[in-house]
Automatic annotation (TrEMBL):
InterPro entries on file: Class_I_gatase-like (IPR029062), DJ-1/PfpI (IPR002818), Homeodomain-like_sf (IPR009057), HTH_AraC (IPR018060), INH-QAR (IPR052158)
PROSITE patterns: HTH_ARAC_FAMILY_2
Domain HTH araC/xylS-type: 214-312
Keyword Disulfide bond: no
One Pfam family this sequence matches: DJ-1_PfpI
Protein name as annotated: GlxA family transcriptional regulator
Transcription is among the record's keywords: yes
Alphabetical keyword list: Transcription, Transcription regulation
Amino acid sequence: MAQRTVLVVLFDGVQSLDVSGPVEVFAGAEKHTPGTYRIHTASLDGAPVRTTSGLTLVPDRPLAEAPHPHTLLVPGGQGTRRPDPRLVDWVRERGPRAVRLVSVCTGAIVLARAGLLDGRRATTHWAYCDTLARNHPAVEVDPDPVYVRDGPVATSAGVTAGIDLALALVEEDLGRDVALTIARHLVVFLRRPGNQAQFSAQLAAQTARREPLREVQRWITEHPDGDLTVQSLAARARLSPRHFARAFRAETGMTPGRYVDRVRLEHARRLLEDTADGIEEISRASGYGTPEAMRRAFVTALGTAPAEYRRRFRPATTH
């Protein structure tokens, strides 16, 4: 098996966890299966860099002396807001030569400035998706997923999403068993599916200003198996269905139906991850009614059936 070189780009203002998270995953895989990964770090001039948290990272060498990478990883951080033009030029030149080009968090901004995301689907930290889309209209920015794969380019959301993406790459390279071992060691999920939302429904939706609507939001979350039709929810809020639907969307940023769909999906995911309950029982408890209805919802939202989701994404445990 050929050894894969992983090169991590460092710069002042880098987010330390964007670096250490993926590095720990690849280093863990190398310890488990020696000879699979060789990790290098490099900065523009080879000098130490200061992270956003104040930590100092010492690179192995200057970028000009860095080895040709199999996987080139560009982390995020405040230093990506106005990246050094020399860094962008280096990424523009060397990025296309890598077998895999990966960004964590706002590292996608550097890739976009280098023109390497044009015509591709990508994501970044939710707080910067609008900025990325506005400044780089040739990039198809998807603000929802944890990470996005588009050919040889992989972009991930904020901070811990870099760990999810790195685990997915290790699984791709070395198989699920190795990725599972690394996840257990790090005490994390094997990996969250890439198209899982960055936010839960409660975080993705704004909290309504009016108490009746806030109460409806709480009711939905606490009773995913209840009658959550617009008519029933409107009656709970003491509003007409039309007025309720319009007010709910105006104050939360999503329709009642979309909010209910997200809550039910999250509830079912948690039961699949945390319990041994059967699929039929979970489908009823989550408001789907039947396993087939839940299966359709999972395939549409996550690209996988509930049973497969449980097999692949249940949290690893340590002993």
